[in-house]
Design a protein that fits this description.
Elements (H helix, E strand, L loop, with lengths): L3 H12 L4 H15 L4 E7 L6 E5 L3 E2 L5 H9 L4 H6 L6 E4 L6 H4 L3 H10 L3 E8 L5 E8 L5 H25 L14 H11 L4 H8 L3 H15 L4 H10 L6
Antiparallel strand pairs: 1-2, 1-6, 2-3, 4-5, 5-6
Helix pairs in contact: 1-2, 2-7, 7-11, 8-10, 8-11, 9-10
Length: about 250
């Protein structure tokens, strides 16, 4: 894996991506740093038509008319990942070998027309709903089995992407709260979010600002309501991405 500082730079590049496809490209690079494998891809599905396009590291997007993209468009509902994700569309991490036995998997079209030809024995994936309402899938396949700890490496990235996508949806749709903008934050709420953005915990922020941890928590709760978000990561991302003109 890359050094920690380099990984942080990669995460920062994800935040700065201009659209869904660039987000997928940059996210796949971080994904590849976290889990070792023989095959990596990012799949972009249209949220309404399920038209697919596939990105491979080093070669780029294959195009929606390619044989592989057409196969995914026609058959994605048969994959256990998609069957689990699509009913709720909640972001998640998956490992194929814990969802379907090898014996059953070897009888599927996915195995016989894709995985076997690619030499893939097992696969892990992250599924996300993008800010624009499309579906982003990051996958890694390899010739031996994945283990539970491989998913554990992916879950922090999944949570970061979920918060980022939530923030983007909030910026592209009417606010859910009476304020819904960074400009509505008080001076103290801004100060707290600046330190959250720097990775500080509530206890550390309370020492820096000279207030109690209870007060820090209350400032965060008020900021969540004003921004229409549910997590400190989402609030920090929104605070970082939008210009502020308030006090």
């Amino acid at each position: 894996m890359k050094e920690f500082s380099s990984t942080l730079d990669s995460l920062d590049s994800i935040i700065g991506a201009r659209d869904d496809r660039q987000t997928a490209e940059r996210s796949l690079r971080v994904f590849a740093d976290l889990v070792s494998g023989d095959y990596y891809s990012a799949v972009h599905y249209d949220g309404q038509t399920f038209a697919a396009d596939i990105y491979h590291l080093g070669t780029g997007w294959v195009g929606q008319d390619s044989a592989m993209a057409t196969f995914l468009w026609k058959n994605h509902l048969e994959h256990p990942f998609a069957r689990h994700f699509l009913p709720t569309r909640r972001p998640n991490c998956y490992r194929r070998s814990e969802m379907v036995s090898n014996r059953d998997w070897h009888g599927t079209r996915f195995y016989n027309e894709l995985d076997r030809n690619l030499g893939i024995k097992d696969m892990v994936a992250i599924y996300q709903m993008t800010g624009a309402g499309n579906i982003m899938v990051l996958t890694c396949g390899r010739s031996n089995l994945f283990r539970q700890h491989d998913l554990d490496f992916l879950r922090p990235l999944n949570r970061i992407l979920e918060s980022l996508m939530q923030t983007r949806r909030m910026s592209e749709t009417p606010a859910r709260s009476p304020w819904g903008t960074v400009d509505s934050l008080s001076k103290r709420e801004r100060e707290v979010l600046r330190w959250v953005r720097e990775g500080k915990r509530n206890g550390e922020i309370s020492v820096i600002l000279g207030v109690s941890t209870h007060t820090v928590r209350k400032h965060l709760e008020k900021a969540f309501v004003k921004l229409g978000v549910e997590t400190r990561t989402a609030a920090a991302l929104m605070f970082a991405e939008h210009p502020q003109t308030g006090p």
